[in-house]
Write a structure and sequence with these properties.
Largest sheet: 5 strands, parallel
CATH architecture of the largest domain: 3-Layer(aba) Sandwich
Radius of gyration: 24 Å
Low-confidence stretches: 6-26
Distance between the termini: 90 Å
Strand order of the largest sheet: 5-4-3-6-7
Number of strands: 14
Structural class: alpha/beta
CATH superfamily of the largest domain: Nitrogenase molybdenum iron protein domain
CATH topology of the largest domain: Rossmann fold
Helix content: 40-55%
Strand content: 5-15%
Shape: globular
Number of helices: 15
Mean pLDDT: 92
Length: about 375
Amino acid sequence: MAASRWFRRLTSALTLGMALLGAATAWAETIEVTDLAGRVVKVTRDPQKIVLSEGRQLYTLAMLDRDDPFKRVVGWGNDLIANDPGAWAKYLAKFPKAKDVADMGNPYASDVSMEKIAALGTEVYILDLSNYFKAQETGLLGKLEKAGIATIFVDFRQDPTQNVLPSVQLLGRVLGREKEANAFSDYFLQQTRRIYARVGAVPDKKKPLVFIERAAGLLPCCATFGALNFGRFIEEAGGRNWGSQFFTGFQGDAAQEKVLSDNPDIYFLTGANWYGSNPGSSAVSLGYDATPEKVQKEISALMNRPGFQQLKAVQGKKVMAFYHQFYDAPYYFVAELAMAKEFYPDLFKDVDPEAVFKEFHEKFLPISYSGLFWAKLQ
């Protein structure tokens, strides 16, 4: 009788074990996706170990894995810690184990440690599209493939107005977070379409000419944006980006004399808290830890550089600073809302961009809103 009970227990245990093994096999589903480089990639759906080549890819991951953006991140680039300390402090306070994520170093360095990626047990390595050719030329893609590590390319920087939605949808599929990706897409379309619907009928001759200085106070004047990224944000918001007539890419360097001579209607600049990584920075320290008083001093100082006081934008207080990290974030449309309201206050009198960004945090992000993300010269 005892032997019979023992046999039944053994049979039940084996049956349970087989069921669990079958479930595990089902969970490890392999899917095919097309990434932002146009590559068809086989990847394990819902991977448990991923590496972010850039730390600022967390801006998107935080929307998809809102309960714990670090639960599957085993390694990441150090750019978020270095370039957005306000955001890093907020995430670290809520998710202390974030400090244990392996530091993969500077994501823009010439080489990437294949050995370190493999040693972390990485299932999926997420790369920015701007690094595609470098990853090909160095043989990194081939090495990762041989090691069984799927690599997918996303783009939140080179051409974000075209590639944010497909990048978020791609990550949603790979991470098993389609519901969250779709919710973001709906919100994104609601916000961006109300901009385009209102400014689409504005004739070009009535649109203001806008110069935007990229990383003002960190980079030499006058680094700017071409027809993409912040340059495209300006145009989608109903302005004419000065740099689009000279630079087809997302960045370029303009001669200060030319900018001053052309005397744009509105002067924008981007800034962030770079003081930790760049002690000599005099940029506008926008972000989660920004204060209005400090930001105003920094904007005023930049617009008091020799020659800038003659600009009609300065004289008419048509100067605005924007959080630089919008250039690499899926919620860049908040900057477009603020621009559109500045260009056409009557068309957007019912729109409160700050309220939208606060709502976005409440709906999609695990951290609370704080600080300052744009400011106008007073």
